[in-house]
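Summary for the funding panel

The consortium committed to producing paired sequence-structure records for every protein in the target list. Below we show the first two records in order, beginning with the earlier of the two.
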Amino acid sequence: MPRRPKPVSIEALLDVEKARPVLEQIANKWSVLILTVLCTRPSRFNEIMRRLDGITHKALSEALKRLERNGLIRREVLTTTTPVGVEYTITALGRSLQQPFEALYAWSMTYGPELERAQIEYDRQRD
């Protein structure tokens, strides 16, 4: 049964030294998007690359290694295919991020236009 996160107090939010190393691993643009892709189904490298328009081969490779190192995804060599392929699967630890990522995605869809308007207004005032 998955563990339920404990409520976070204001004091805990201020303890940046503890949270920062973890957030640096999971909260960057490509990690969030890769984990979101893998939440739907296991995928091969090129499929992930196609779904993440704009990511470079190098950036994807580095992000996948970082996510695997942190136990958020699993890399499996598929010897039953020709040529040999590699498939990436989200782990239980990685899946525990699905709900927060879904909330962040929903927020971005709801408030994205407002964010864009704020950027336009900010840039207009600076010109």
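The next record, for a separate protein in the list, is shown here:
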Amino acid sequence: MASRSAAQRDSRESRNGTPHLDAVSLAIIEQLQEDGRRPYAAIGKAVGLSEAAVRQRVQKLLDQGVMQIVAVTDPLTVGFRRQAMVGVNVEGDVESIAEALTDMSEVEYVVMTAGSFDILAEIVCEDDDHLLDVINKRIRALPGVRSTESFVYLKLKKQTYMWGTR
């Protein structure tokens, strides 16, 4: 019965509408951040739940959009030789431009910001010509885009998804 009570507590939402995550769910997330292929039985042993309970919790975390389990690649090794961060200044509705950027397959990351740029977008392309095409013909062509500034990556020194849980 204790795990059912914990599962019920885990499914509640906090005051700001995000799922409430108890200590066990946070521990499961940390286990998967270390190794996304770790068996549910091993996770269960580490967090004190059965394999079935871990499987259920993981599915709930996936369904709630709390986490994703994906293969993270090195873009260079899979044919994407040019990465850039593009700062975008917008006239009018920032959200509509951010939404248009999220629909572009080359755009991996979009964040609305306060500061010199309204939006920052990370772009991964095959080469410089591809990057130029995305910026010049697609991003700058969006109605409401006032200007862009590109920061081409020369060398990626650190990229991690291991920030854990708090």
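Regarding this second record: The first helix runs from residue 2 to 11. The helical segments are 2-11, 23-34, 40-47, 51-63, 94-102, 128-139.
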